Write the structure tokens for this entry.
Amino acid sequence: MNLTLRPARPEDLDALWQLDRDCYPRGIAYTRRDLRDFLTHPEALSQVAWSGKEIVGFLIGLYHDGQGHIITADVRASARRQGIASALLRGVESEMGARGVTVVELETATNNAAGIAFWKRSGYQIVAVVPRYYLRRIDAYLMFKRLRPSVVPADLPR
Ligand SMILES: CC(C)(COP(=O)(O)OP(=O)(O)OC[C@H]1O[C@@H](n2cnc3c(N)ncnc32)[C@H](O)[C@@H]1OP(=O)(O)O)[C@@H](O)C(=O)NCCC(=O)NCCS
């Protein structure tokens, strides 16, 4: 698949909302308003994967004061295991790193085997269990990754 990666645009909102509802159970999927609020947050970073025909994946993160938080990672079921989420995550992590983020955290349901495998493969470690995080009954893992410091050429000795 020939994909273009780019930040989300306001006109993507409905497509992202639909994809999120395809990716997560009812009650866990975000509302349209939640997604709009995330995307318009001044410290939001996002990436979408565009196939030329449709959005096949997206990832949203927020950052503040050196700390990043992944809000969601969504890839269309028919497009999984092709490295799309990995590419989206690299894009958002690298934008975070450029803004001084050194640690990134996220929550994922303890029953989401694919999600947990993906985050572990992407360098995230489980640091805690958050009881009844989803729907007041499904536990979440809090996961954490330290970003490698980005080398800023201007900081190098001359
Ligand atoms: C989790 C999700 C985002 C992964 O997207 P993806 O584009 O398929 O991920 P990638 O192709 O980049 O996977 C990278 C690696 O993660 C691991 N991984 C991803 N999905 C996996 C699965 N279903 N089972 C086991 N390992 C998996 C593998 O190591 C994979 O590398 P490989 O394919 O070479 O073995 C996707 O399955 C999804 O949208 N799920 C529904 C929403 C969700 O649960 N999001 C994450 C929780 S916030």
The chain has a mean pLDDT of 94. The chain has four helices and seven strands. The CA atoms of residues 98 and 152 lie 9 Å apart.
